[in-house]
Amino acid sequence: MVAFIKQEALEKAREIQVKADEEFAIEKAKLVKQEQQAIDAQFEKKRKGAEVAQKIAQSNLTNKSRLKLLQRREEQLQELFSISRSSILTFGEDEGRYSQFLEGVVVQGLLQLMEPRVTLLAREQDADIVQMAGEAAAESYTRISGREVSFDLETTLSKDCAGGVKLLSNSRRISIDNTLDERLRLLEDSMLPEIRKDLFGSNENRKFYT
């Protein structure tokens, strides 16, 4: 009887042990799976973070390259404009061409103002040639418009100015800048898209060139 009870106890203990081992194995597998999932999630997070960091680095590198390219292009444009500015400084030395230019821009300014009296602003060293050009322009203006015009001459333009004239209305409220400097600036602005296209080719990413 004692042996039977002992045997029953041993079998019961084995059942309990087997069940405990199974539960332990199940719990262990569950913990291992959870840990593996956590490791996988952490790895995926790091992988995505590395991809984002790589894309940011590539984007920064691309942007830096583009900025360097734009900077080099801008330097080329400024060098070209600098050559143009240097050339207009000597334009006034050709008296024939300069006188013709002055007469033309004065006539243009007079036709814009359409006033009986105006003021011409010139450089001090251009006083004589502007006076003659102004007189010739006044005659041309009269032939074109049928109106008479007179002008005063003031030599107040800066010596740093490349040449040309400014015209003031009789009230001095309207000013027309026909200096060589302003003419070149306007030409640079209007020709810039074409210059860029000629120098650097068409940019398919831009619909307009500015």
Percentage of residues in strands: 5-15%
- Shape estimate: rod-shaped
Tally of separate helices:
4
Task: Report strand order across the widest sheet.
Answer: 2-1-3-4
Looking at how many chains there are and whether they match, the oligomeric state comes to single chain
Counted beta strands? 4
- The residue ranges in which pLDDT falls below 50 over 5 or more consecutive positions are none
Helix content: over 70%
- Note the main sheet: 4 strands, mixed
What order do the SSEs take from the amino end to the carboxyl end, as H and E?
HHEHEEEH
Structural class by SSE content: alpha+beta
Distance between the termini: 108 Å
| Mean pLDDT across every amino acid position | 81
Q: How big is the Rg?
A: 43 Å
